[in-house]
Amino acid sequence: MPLKNNKIEVKLREIQLSDAPELFTIIEKGREYLREWLPFIDITKKVEDTEAFIRFVKSKASEHDSVYVIISDDKIVGVISYKGTDNVNHKTEIGYWLAQDHQGKGLVTQACRILIENAFENLGINRVQLKVGVNNSKSAAIPKRLNFKLEGVERDGEFLNGRYINLEVYSLLKQDWISDKSNQEAY
Prior knowledge:
By secondary structure, the chain is of the alpha+beta class. The chain has a single domain (3-186), classed as Gcn5-related N-acetyltransferase (GNAT) (Aminopeptidase, 3-Layer(aba) Sandwich), CATH 3.40.630.30. The protein contains six helices and eight strands; from the N terminus they run ββαααβββαβαββα. The chain has helices at 20-29, 31-35, 47-58, 107-122, 137-145, 174-186; strands at 3-5, 8-14, 66-72, 75-86, 91-98, 127-133, 149-160, 163-173. It has an eight-stranded mixed β-sheet with strand order 1-2-3-4-5-6-8-7, with helices on both faces. Strand 5, helix 4 (107-122) and strand 6 form a beta-alpha-beta unit. Helix 1 (20-29) crosses helix 3. The two termini are 25 Å apart. The relative contact order is 0.14.
């Protein structure tokens, strides 16, 4: 699923067990940075923990999740996923994380666009949601840039670093995406 923009190419590929060492290296290198907003960092202590995560998401036990690596310049730089997909109600959530040294280049925004377009055009999804820790301004910029609507705050929505944090809940409906796309094509 490639997307090109401003000479930066983002590719998504379904996560594979062989990605575990590279992903663990990214986590290990950026542990302090990543742990500010990601609850799994402290329990990811060795490459086998990353392997266990990959096995889980590829198992039938995780049939409502699809996880992809984000690739830029032929290197894995992060992860993006559909989480908790509900096919009965035609909705899903997108989650993501990116290596610190690849922040600020628009890579996650582009990766989100790929998943959003796939969800609406190929998966029969009507609603895509993103949840962002309150005060995580870098992450909150992504749904805003993609014209998601802030619906409100999920109180104590995530247990992070020994405490509960509130999450901003953003959503985008298929009709909004189509309308935004039509408006962009008109110019």
